[in-house]
Design brief:
By secondary structure, the chain is of the alpha+beta class. It is built from one helix and twelve strands, in the order ββββββββββββα. The chain has one domain. Strands 1-2-3-4-5-6-7-8-9-10-11-12 form a twelve-stranded antiparallel β-barrel.
């Protein structure tokens, strides 16, 4: 199954809308409506290395970046998952459970940070939306880092 954070902040599963998102332009936060449930994703902590997903005001999922300069996230979503960079120079991200890749994530276009996720194992829609948000943040962080590095040379 393929999930896509599509244009207009619509999240699609194989081309069918499953959620709608609203991103904050000034804070590292998003609101995602999945059916009748509203989820809030927000970054917290020093360096914004922790992301929390709340539904109805109660924290449901968390993700922690393992270091300030890494693209490795450990997710607590009922089971433990990891979102890791696929290779040293790769922009692709892999979702790993128990050492096995269960999904691959990449940018949906050359000039945007919207992620696309292809699953080899089923995951609940709220978990997929949370992973897409983390990938979106990571791709934007990589774009910012690359721009800063290019400007410094």
């Amino acid at each position: 199954m393929e999930y896509d954070w599509a244009r207009g902040d619509v999240i699609q599963a194989d081309g069918v809308e499953v959620a709608q998102a609203t991103r904050s332009w000034f804070r590292d936060q998003a609101e995602v409506r999945i059916g009748h449930e509203v989820w809030t994703y927000r970054a917290q902590g020093w360096g914004r290395g922790t992301v929390v997903a709340d539904a109805d005001g109660a924290p449901r999922f968390t993700a922690r970046r393992s270091g300030l300069f890494t693209a490795r996230w450990t997710l607590d979503v009922g089971s433990e998952l990891a979102l890791v960079q696929a290779g040293w120079a790769s922009s692709r991200l892999d979702l790993v459970r128990g050492g096995t890749s269960i999904a691959s994530c990449w940018r949906s276009g050359l000039f945007n940070g919207r992620p696309r996720l292809e699953l080899t194992q089923e995951l609940d829609v709220p978990v997929v939306c949370f992973v897409l948000w983390l990938a979106y943040r990571e791709y934007n962080r990589q774009s910012s880092d690359g721009g800063a590095a290019a400007a410094a040379t």
